[in-house]
Design goal:
By secondary structure, the chain is mostly helical. The chain is about 60% helix and about 10% strand. Strand 3 and strand 4 form a beta hairpin.
Amino acid sequence: MCTGRVDLAFILRAYSNGADGVFIGGCWLGECHYVTEGNYDALFNMHLGRKLLQEIGIEPQRLRLEWIAASEGIRYAEVMNDFGKQLKTFGPLGKGEGLAPDILKLKLEALSNLIPYIKLVERERLRVRFDQQEKYDEYFASRDFKRLFDELIVDRLVRVQIQLLLAKKPLTTAELAVTLGLSPATAARHLKQSTMQGLVRFDTAQQCYALA
């Protein structure tokens, strides 16, 4: 299967099922077996996937992409041994990052729910195509990408987490802030925006927020 077929949803599913890391091996750039050069798409998705993992508090290096030809068996073994050692230093997924199991599950679920939207904005606003791997590194480290990523994805991801928490039970602003590691002001801003969009409502009787 071409690495360009590796969807972000596949990667998140692996983590949700308990994988401590995800490895993707593909053809060297310029040597695509399918002519479509899907390995460039895989490179883009790897960078985007790492940014998304980092945003929910997961070590981004738990996602790894390497170029390995079918004839490079020794290199494949070396890379996999190195990745295994690296994952051991990180520790189990979530525990290594200091995330409680319920919070890890919440964050992965929120990100998974957002994938259709992320794929849409990725195609329309984030997608770039370069001929050199270094240019992808520069793009994802740039201020322009950070601005777009924050504008299009970060706030929406927080609001999805809020909705998942409120689906279980009504919560106060302070409770939501503590659970998600937000400042009270930031939590209040997201709740205000979600209320304006008709996604949540303030329960005056219980003095807390609930799903609309």
